[in-house]
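Backbone-to-sequence.
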């Protein structure tokens, strides 16, 4: 055999260090790409939630304005002067005369099995609800 034939028959062996270095580089690159994609995903979610929060704040401020308007309207409609003027004007009601006023009496059980009647001007009436003994 000639030396040229011998060089043609040389077999190249694979270097295990080269494969290990390429595998390590590929793994580190994949981890970095995954980390970057995770951070980008978190930022996108943060921006989306920020827009949603701004929308909800806008809706809340609008609803607070409506609530204020409704409270004013409620107070206006509950005003006794308005109710009285409506009763006099639209319904034709008048203030009652002294002879038309009747005082209500309340049944009050007295001590020792006796009961009495009292008028509204003698004692203030108890508030409605269950009585505590």
């Amino acid at each position: 055999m000639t030396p040229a034939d011998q060089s043609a028959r040389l077999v190249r062996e694979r270097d295990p260090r080269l494969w290990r270095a390429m595998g390590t580089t590929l793994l580190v690159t994949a981890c970095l790409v995954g980390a970057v994609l995770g951070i980008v995903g978190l930022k996108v979610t943060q921006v989306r939630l920020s827009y949603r929060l701004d929308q909800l704040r806008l809706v809340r401020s609008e609803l607070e304005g409506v609530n204020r308007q409704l409270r004013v309207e409620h107070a206006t409609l509950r005003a006794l002067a308005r109710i009285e003027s409506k009763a006099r004007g639209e319904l034709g009601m008048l203030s009652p005369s002294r002879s038309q006023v009747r005082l209500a009496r309340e049944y009050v059980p007295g001590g020792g099995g006796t009961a009495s009647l009292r008028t509204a001007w003698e004692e203030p009436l108890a508030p409605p609800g269950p009585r505590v003994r």
